[in-house]
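2024-03-11 09:14:02 DEBUG pipeline.ingest accepted 1 chain
2024-03-11 09:14:02 DEBUG pipeline.ingest length=322
2024-03-11 09:14:03 DEBUG pipeline.predict start
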Amino acid sequence: MKKLKAVSLFSGCGGFDYGATQAGLDIIWANDKDKYTYAAYKSILPNVPLYIQDVREIEKFPQAEVLIGCYPCTGFSIGARRGGKNGQKKDLMKVEGNFLYKEYLRALEQVKPKYFFVENVLGMASAMDGWFFQQQLNGFRERGYTPIAKLLKAVQYGLPQNRQRVFIVGVRNDITHDFTYEFPAPTHGSELLPYRTLKDAISGMPKNPIGEYAVTPFHGHYLTRNRKQNWDKPSYTIVAHEDHVPLHPDGDPMRKIGTDQWELCGDFNRRLSWKECAVLQGLPLCIAPEGRLKDKYRVVGNAVPPIFAKTIITPIVIFENS
């Protein structure tokens, strides 16, 4: 099988890259600025050169057939809370991290790939009535690519987690004459394979793994909604902040006592451990992040589940090998 060479930006702990290698890509160069991602990345992709450096400081990127980049858009959830459903342009424009997509466009010009892949949060697409999202799509088109975007739900592709993210796949215009990209259809759901559940994923893991889960108090914001899902359901979305991680399914369910008010019940209420979060993200069991507990949660929670990458990259690998 022909292996396409790929460059990865905003690589994190390597979740997307790991899935990309499963699909058949050869990651030749990767980059992230978070020093705590290094050990985790190397534990699952030991042979990939990973450079810990701010992407804005990198002058030259290597050429490859694929460019991967899950660039952060850090201000959207904050902007949404401040400005309503779509956020306020004046607020979102102030957040420097929201414009790292321009570094991705700069890399796109140098890497000159046949295909590119981008992942981001739903708020990135809906902010400012879609203006911000269109700016990115226009940037891809101006550089000679045909982008296609879609919201994907992790549970529909075999991950036991209610995670949903926006993906953009770009095909260089000279290739579109022979190849039209289509996102793969779901594999799990009604009349398909059943959704995978918390029981499927973590039922055999230790019930009380001391030192692997956060013990900070459950503050008021945490108690504004249900955080404990049943064993026979997929997990709530795994997040990067240790304080907001969902609860382990054991024990009594939470009880709603008012509008945006829930209370804990029973005597077993702990957050999922960082290792349980890693399993629910579909990351390899050998992943070994370093740092404090909150750093491990952050690295794992920010990961792109490998199943997403494997799913959306496979069509181009099939085409290139046909």
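2024-03-11 09:14:41 DEBUG pipeline.report The radius of gyration is 20 Å.
2024-03-11 09:14:41 DEBUG pipeline.predict end
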